[in-house]
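Now for our specimen.

. . .
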Amino acid sequence: MRSREPRPAARSKQRRVSGPTKFVADAMLGSLARKLRAFGFDTVYYKDGNDSALLDLATSEGRVLLSSDRTLSEQADARKTACLVITGSKESRRLVSLRTGADAKGLVLRSGPPRCSMCNGDLHRTPGSQLAGSIPARVLGRHRLFYRCVDCGRVYWRGSHWKKLRWLEKLLDQGPDPDDTRRRQRSGRPGKAVA
């Protein structure tokens, strides 16, 4: 389990967290919810229902509400429900927004093992020999490490998307490196990945 501690300026009002941080993302943040699951955060994607039910879910399950709706954030504050306002239209900006908001509120972001990006289920390591017929033979021949969701059965491996996910996770861990951000803006590429 990794812990993403707030930056020093926010440590004085730090909230205690036992176990991984849990989120609930509103209907406008489905892609962000999938990324957070891959990074090991238990994240409910709330795409159907009204704001009151969403707030009830966040409060009853101890989840941090993620929303780009400032009015919903004000309602969460009135209920004393943790809420982070997410800004930006690109995933990189949204993750930096989440990191910045968590720092400002003294919220420690603590992840667990990666989760299924589609259904939020637990992933278990699965031998390739058990996956014949489930995934393309070329993938079985090229990769050795596989994970299967215990809930929906989806299979994961370190494919071509892996470097971009690691780069995005680095943004959540540390925030953007200003020099790297300028380089990416010129080149249009995601920047260096972390192992």
